[in-house]
Every structure is written in structure tokens, then in C-alpha cells.
Amino acid sequence: MVATVYAYEPSEQEIQNSILEYLTLKGYTCWRQNSAGIYSEKLGRFRKQSKYAVNGISDIIVLSEGKAYFIEVKRERGKQSEDQTLFQKFVERAGCEYLLARCLADVQEAGF
Q1: Which of 31, 55, 77, 102 is most buried as measured by Cβ atoms within 10 A of its Cβ?
Q2: Which CATH number describes the domain made up of 12-109?
Q3: Where in the chain are the domains?
């Protein structure tokens, strides 16, 4: 009989939280950018986002020494949506930094 070993894979929220806690402890100005719609019980549906909302915006935004960094968090097998890929191109064209992070180590290896 062969024993089956299951590896725990953290959720994107757990990965985001570990990254935000790490960046905060290192003294970075950072925040979680929530881009999900907000459900209104009164309306019985999701509220319409502002016409100025940015589709595909990264999960975490970091400001440091006059630069902006955008971190998109995905699980090991997660893939960027089309909007997220377009946002990445927008960020890079603007001369800012974009990082696709699958774990805290990715952020550390990027120099944070």
C-alpha cells in the first residue's frame, strides 16, 4: 500500500496577507487594492463600479522611493485574466514595475 501525500496550497488571500505583512514589517507603504464588486443587499445585486475603475488592477500596490510597484498574486497554477495582462502592459509602458507573485519568496527575490 502506498501512502498519498497531499501538499497544502495556500489561498490567494493567504499569500496576499503574508506579502502585505512582510512589506509592512519592512517599512513599505503598501495596500491591498480591492477591485471586486460590492454586493448591495438593498439593491439585490452588485453595485456598478465607477466609470474610472481600472479593470485588472493588481492586488497589491507598493510605493517606495518615488516608484510605484504593482504585485499581482496568483496561486501556483493560477493564470492572469485578459484584463490583468492588459494592466501589466499598461504598467510596464508607464515605466513602473509589475510582479506576478505566487508566494512571499517571489517578492523577496524581487528585492523587497
Answers
A1: 102
A2: 3.40.1350.10
A3: 12-109
